[in-house]
Amino acid sequence: MSADKIYMDSAATTRVDHEVMKAMQPYFSEDFGNMASLHSRGREAEHAVEKARRDITKKVNGKDHRLIFTSGGTESNNFVLKGLAFAKKDKGHIITTKIEHDCILSTAKWLEKRGFDVTYLPVDREGFVDPAELEGAIRKDTIVASVIHANNEIGTIEPVRELGKVAHEHDVLFHTDACQSFTKVPIDLKKDNIDLMTINSHKIYGPKGVGGLFVRQGVKLEPLLHGGGQEYGFRSGTVNVSGIAGFAKAVDIMKDKHVSHMEKLRDMLIDGALKIDASWLNGSRKQRLCNNAHFSFSHIEGESLIIHLDLKGIAASTGSACSSKSLEPSHVLTAIGLKPEEAHGSIRFSLGKESTKEEIERTLESLSDAVETLRKISPFKR
Ligand SMILES: *Cc1c(COP(=O)(O)O)cnc(C)c1O
């Protein structure tokens, strides 16, 4: 980042790392082949994609799984719910939660209109899904339980291992959307009882428009895209070789030291921000993404706070990049029990591996100034 700009919106997207760009470059020019071709140019492309598939799969102990490359988290989430729903002869039941990303919720609603039943599990005050609630929701015709691995707004990391165990005890498939947690939280597909998992590249310094869906061998999915039968027949279309090579490099260069670096800065930001009068942290203090800090400030509009901080060169967000332009309170904040006026006074800071201590200090200073200024002019009674 340039010296005066502070980027605190890494949960929305990240810049492409230089090493990632370098890894992508050859596949735009000298190695431009189509991996479906039989000649050597095609084989180079195939080699790159298959190496990427192996390397990313290894990262999550996916010995029993296949990684299908897609255009991103949105496609993977659409694919998993629609693909499972339409692979069945009869209509059935889907379980998900109230705090999913919009691409799960909108897909679930779309399926409801087409005759499928959906249960949206509630969460507690910190955003946790209770495995007992999941168990209680399971029916004979339940197709899949889909629970976000770590929430994109409030950063809560769900107990996926326990949730997956409950699903499996009742012969229900378990899917998790790991777009926020992949490479930040250790994942073992086998031990964590995960049959299907969504990942993407642009939240971890890879290119936009690339993602994947892990599918346990033997799980039947109806494809969304029909054509040449690429990606084991699951996803037709010429494969995005450069994007996939970049995705694999992004996964490769994300290390534990980056996670602990972000954790340290996150805690500094949380401790500092909670010194501000009438403020609180949303989500869990302990089971929390290393780069997420999400606060509410009484008597303040989150949007005004973001504009104030933006004037000081600090980029933050109200939470979900997709719905931040709507005036509806966030469905996640509503689900954890915030009143609409409390939800509106909320702001998310999401750090990156390049964030610094100085940036946190400057952010805290600007934040407390902005809160003070806005409260002076606030129309809400104190
Ligand atoms: C960003 C995100 C998505 C959407 O991924 P895209 O690659 O942008 O389509 C889905 N789920 C979660 C939890 C996300 O954070």
How many structural units, i.e. domains? 2
Q: Largest beta sheet: what is the strand line-up? A: 2-8-7-6-5-3-4
Mean pLDDT: 95
Largest sheet: 7 strands, mixed
Q: Tell me roughly what share of residues is in helical segments.
A: 25-40%
CATH superfamily of the largest domain: Type I PLP-dependent aspartate aminotransferase-like (Major domain)
In one word, what is the shape? globular
Uncertain ranges: none
Give the SSE order as H and E letters. EHHEHEHEHEHEEEHHEEHEHHEH
Architecture of the largest domain, according to CATH?
3-Layer(aba) Sandwich
Just give the CATH class of the largest domain.
Alpha Beta
Sequence-ordered SSE layout with sheet pairings:
Blueprint: E1 6-7, H1 18-24, H2 40-59, E2 65-70, H3 73-87, E3 93-97, H4 102-113, E4 117-121, H5 131-137, E5 142-148, H6 160-169, E6 173-177, E7 196-200, E8 211-216, H7 241-253, H8 256-273, E9 279-281, E10 292-297, H9 302-311, E11 314-315, H10 331-335, H11 340-344, E12 346-350, H12 357-376
Parallel strand pairs: 1-11, 3-4, 3-5, 5-6, 6-7
Antiparallel strand pairs: 2-8, 7-8, 9-10, 10-12
Helix pairs in contact: 1-7, 2-7, 3-4, 5-6, 8-12, 9-12
